[in-house]
Amino acid sequence: ITLKRLKSNAINFIMGYNAVSVAIENNCEAPRMLKAFRKCGNTVPTLELEDFISQKSRYMRACMDAGVPMAPTIFAPKGKRSPASLLHQITQRGWKHFVMKQSESGFSLGFVKLSVESCQRDPSILKTYFKDYASCPEYVVQEAIDGFTRNWETRCFWYNGEFLYAIANMAAVSVSDGAERIITGDDIPKEFLENAKRIGREAIKALPPLKAPTGQTVPMVLVRTDIGCSDSPIYDRNT
Fold first, then answer.
1. For residue 229, which of 5, 30, 143, 238 sits 20 to 30 Å off, Cα-Cα?
2. Single pTM value for the model
């Protein structure tokens, strides 16, 4: 990946290899490649947008400020967290189960689901997590909403605003046997597919336009919307 190569294309779709991929590899080429992504001016999404969404708390706070419903959440930044204080916050809010993940990672890296009861009984559970991921800039901690694990998360792919195809999955970290499930085509229950298309069609209308090297703006070309569904109660006292 070089700046010259990126600029030779009208638009670079970096969904398969982007700044997150570079950060995970974290090798000697990382600074050069990030600089190329930042300077080429024709990536989809833009580096500004990728920076915005790569730190979960940044876009989550923006959604909260805009009135978008969000699962009960605690942000635990490095230097301002401890196992005891986090568990205290969780119990004060009445949660029974919770999930933790790293703010700047994907692919379920650092994801764990825990019960409040088990952490109270064995403090080493949280202490071990804090030790293993001590360098992480921020943890995102949310009340576990079990309804999401019983329903398909449906991912719709859109091209120029038109629906192309969908896949539906249940992540390995969310099911009891730890086996990821993926289906597509006619195997996706119609109720999940049609609702995912309905919500996704409205969501893509809110996306910013793309900018071509000539300075022209064009509508967002390639988009994926992920739609989940919950049917379980929330115990958070602040919700």
1. 238
2. 0.80
